[in-house]
C-alpha cells in the first residue's frame, strides 16, 4: 500500500512540476527576469526541489524537460538574437539543465550524511546546483560561440571571459541565493506532505 501511495505521490508531483516548468518557460516573469543579455532564471529552483524531494533521477528528468522546453521556445517564440544560436543548441539548452538535477540530488544525498540538519543539506545542494547551471551555460557559450557571442554583446573577445565571470558573480550569485532560500522551503513542505500521507 505504501509503495502504491509513494508511486502516486511521485507521479502527481512530477506532473505538477512539469506543468510549472512549461508555464515558467512561456509566461513572462514567471521563469525569467528580463535583464539582458542572458535573463536570470528562477526555473532552476523547480528542478532543485524535485531532486531534493523525489531524488536525483527525477530531478534530471525535470531538468531535461526544462531544457527541451527552452529549445522549443527558441524555435517557436524567439525573443532575442540569442535564441537563434544559443538556445537552439541542445548542448547549451539541455545538458546544463540535466546537470542541475544531477548535482542537486547527488549533493543533497552526500550532504545529508555530513550535516546534522536536513535544511543545511538542502541549502548547500541548492547553491551548488544553481551555480552548476550558471557556470555550465556560460562556459559552453564561451567554448562554442565565444567570438559570435562577444560580437553580439559588443565586447572584445579578449575581454569576454571577464564579462562572463562578472555575470557569474552577479546573476549567478543572485540565482544561487534565491535557490538557497526558496528551494528548501518548498522541498520541506513537500517532504512533510509525503511522510504524512
UniProtKB/TrEMBL annotation:
Q: Which Pfam families match?
A: ECF_trnsprt
A single MF term (Gene Ontology): transmembrane transporter activity
Where do transmembrane segments lie in this chain? 12-33, 91-111, 123-145, 157-187
* Record keyword Chloroplast present: no
Please name the InterPro entries in this protein's record: ECF_trnsprt_substrate-spec
Q: Give UniProt keywords alphabetically.
A: Membrane, Transmembrane, Transmembrane helix
Q: What protein name does the entry list?
A: Uncharacterized membrane protein
Organism, as annotated: Carnobacterium alterfunditum
Amino acid at each position: 500500500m505504501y509503495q502504491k501511495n509513494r508511486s502516486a505521490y511521485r507521479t502527481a508531483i512530477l506532473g505538477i512540476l512539469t506543468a510549472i516548468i512549461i508555464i515558467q518557460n512561456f509566461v513572462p516573469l514567471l521563469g525569467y527576469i528580463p535583464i539582458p543579455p542572458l535573463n536570470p532564471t528562477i526555473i532552476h529552483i523547480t528542478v532543485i526541489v524535485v531532486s531534493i524531494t523525489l531524488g536525483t533521477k527525477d530531478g534530471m528528468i525535470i531538468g531535461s524537460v526544462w531544457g527541451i522546453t527552452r529549445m522549443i521556445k527558441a524555435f517557436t517564440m524567439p525573443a532575442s538574437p540569442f535564441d537563434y544560436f544559443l538556445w537552439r543548441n541542445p548542448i547549451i539548452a539541455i545538458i546544463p539543465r540535466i546537470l542541475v538535477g544531477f548535482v542537486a540530488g547527488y549533493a543533497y544525498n552526500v550532504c545529508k550524511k555530513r550535516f546534522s540538519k536536513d535544511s543545511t543539506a538542502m541549502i548547500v545542494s541548492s547553491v551548488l546546483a544553481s551555480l552548476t547551471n550558471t557556470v555550465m551555460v556560460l562556459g559552453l557559450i564561451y567554448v562554442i560561440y565565444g567570438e559570435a557571442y562577444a560580437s553580439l554583446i559588443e565586447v572584445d573577445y579578449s575581454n569576454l571571459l571577464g564579462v562572463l565571470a562578472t555575470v557569474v558573480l552577479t546573476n549567478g550569485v543572485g540565482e544561487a541565493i534565491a535557490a538557497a532560500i526558496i528551494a528548501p522551503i518548498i522541498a520541506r513542505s513537500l517532504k512533510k506532505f509525503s511522510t504524512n500521507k
